[in-house]
Automatic annotation (TrEMBL):
SusD-like N-terminal domain segment(s): 65-221
Short name of one Pfam family: SusD-like_3
Family indicated by similarity: Belongs to the SusD family.
Location within or outside the cell: Cell outer membrane
Domain of life: Bacteria
Protein name, per record: SusD family protein
């Protein structure tokens, strides 16, 4: 965390840092704590290794946090029993303090670890004497992008948060107003856009920051701030100026989640060959057998605790009898012995690496998607359909371009286009940690969640509580979010 950081690290840690990072392999987070010694980064090669660490730190924190607080909290998944022997994750949608805190909803330390690493990189870059200009610009752009993305998650989860731009010798920092945090996010993304290129080669497609990724995240930022005019223009840049193309072959849609597909904009890379494997609840809570066989924590092989859309939730997304390829591509239908209700696996991440360790659940080939082309197409449709812009025909065409890929019936003006776009985002992006953010951004929380109080936004019902441990460690400079006091 950013509180009371040591200003030095041991020599052996620095040697480990220098020896073990490589440009292609992003090591596990245990390898290097955040380096803070003045000699830790002295060359462009050191910077590349330090940025690799930042990606690794982000990969460590995002999958669980965003799936649980972006999907589970939006009430799109449930377990077999909602009253007994339930998974702790099942109760997240009830929005109780206990259910959120018990699932890590109060802990922001992982994001601040990324922030501190990026702060260090941006500080040290300026003092490196020999530096290829193209490489230097890329490094500045990547560090700025990763810091902006981390703060965007922080602000969407907790609202006012400490704003820190220094790597070492940190005093206890109080929370900064969201307006200041978002100002810094936009500044960082503008730096990223100015310094990054559209592509750095197929091998790094989507798994390292690019100009297109920075446009896409800034589009989401502007949408979050209700500046739909700016949001729409940024989305248009991604769609028309970026190299992204939707995967059209419905038999090959799972390639999107293996990673580095033509529609990938930014995703977290997992590669078993590089030992980038990780036990997380995106995989082991949604797949079960035959993909996982570990019963040790009630996940994996225990279908009783499988997290999936209920039959009612599936019907709400996919009208019975309607055609939609995502119903059989995103989901794997199974009937479990002795159970009267049929459930489905979320199968987006079922393309798992056979070299992985199925018994410990440390197995995955699938990447975690942060943003991809259909996300930005539908975000642009949302912006165009907003009351401030009102270009409904263009919005409908974008909506239908995503529907056509799934062979779903096209929108022809029946029903609210804003609600239709929101539902389409739910169907297209389920399991990618987007839907709770969608409900907050569109101010439609009471429409499709268990947060139903009429003044939910003003009261901050949608914000997460802050762990009491974090508050105490700050010497109570950090205060609890108002709704959770």
């Amino acid at each position: 965390m950013l509180i009371n950081r040591k200003s030095k690290i041991l020599c052996i840690a620095l040697m480990t840092f220098a020896m073990l990072f490589s440009c292609k392999k992003i090591l596990d987070t245990e390898v290097v704590e955040i380096p803070t010694d003045t000699n830790a980064i002295t060359s462009a090669a050191d910077v590349d290794k330090a940025i690799a660490a930042a990606y690794s730190f982000l990969r460590f924190v995002v999958p669980d946090k965003v799936f649980l607080m972006g999907d589970m909290r939006a009430n799109v998944f449930s377990s077999y029993s909602q009253s007994s022997n339930t998974r702790t994750e099942t109760l997240i949608a009830t929005n109780s303090s206990a259910s959120l805190l018990n699932n890590g909803g109060g802990d922001w330390n992982g994001f601040y670890r990324v922030v501190s690493q990026c702060n260090l990189v941006l500080e040290k870059i300026q003092g490196i004497p020999v530096y290829d200009e193209v490489t230097k610009k890329r490094h500045i752009g990547e560090a700025s992008f990763l810091r902006a993305l981390s703060y965007f998650y922080l602000a969407r989860f907790w609202g006012d948060v400490p704003l820190n731009l220094k790597a070492v010798d940190l005093a206890n920092l109080p929370k900064a107003p969201q307006a200041d945090v978002f100002k810094q996010i936009q500044q960082d993304l503008d730096v990223a856009i100015a310094n990054l290129q559209m592509s750095y080669g197929a091998n790094e497609m989507a798994v390292r920051a690019t100009k297109g990724a920075a446009w896409a995240i800034k589009a989401h930022v502007m949408g979050w701030l209700q500046d739909y005019s700016s949001c729409e223009k940024l989305c248009d840049s991604v769609i028309t100026r970026g190299p992204y193309v939707m995967v059209k072959d419905t038999t090959n849609l799972l390639s999107i989640f293996v990673g580095k597909s033509t529609e990938g904009i930014f995703e977290l890379n997992f590669d078993a060959n590089l030992k980038e494997v990780q036990k997380n609840r995106v995989f082991n809570r949604t797949l079960g057998r035959p993909w996982y066989t570990d019963y040790s924590d009630g996940g994996g092989g225990t279908e009783t605790f499988l997290l999936s859309p209920s039959p009612e939730q599936m019907t709400q997304m996919f009208v019975p009898g309607s055609k939609d390829a995502r119903r059989f591509t995103w989901f794997v239908r199974e009937t479990y012995t002795g159970r009267t209700n049929n459930r489905v696996y979320l199968g987006k991440y079922r393309s798992l690496q056979l070299k992985g360790d199925t018994s410990s659940q440390n197995i995955n080939e699938s990447n975690i998607i942060v943003t991809r082309l259909p996300d930005i197409i539908l975000l642009r449709a949302e912006a165009l359909a907003s009351t401030g812009i009102g270009r409904v025909a263009e919005a409908a065409e974008l909506l239908n371009s995503v529907r056509r890929r799934a062979f779903a019936k096209e929108y022809a003006g029946n029903g609210s286009i804003q609600d239709t776009i929101l539902l389409e985002r739910k169907k297209e992006l389920i399991g990618e940690g987007q839907y709770f953010f969608d409900l907050v951004r569109t101010r439609k929380m009471t429409k499709d969640s268990k947060i139903t109080n009429g003044d939910w936004f003003a009261r901050g019902t949608w914000l997460l509580p802050i762990s009491q441990a974090i508050i105490a460690q700050s010497n109570f400079v950090i205060t609890q979010n108002e709704y959770w006091k």
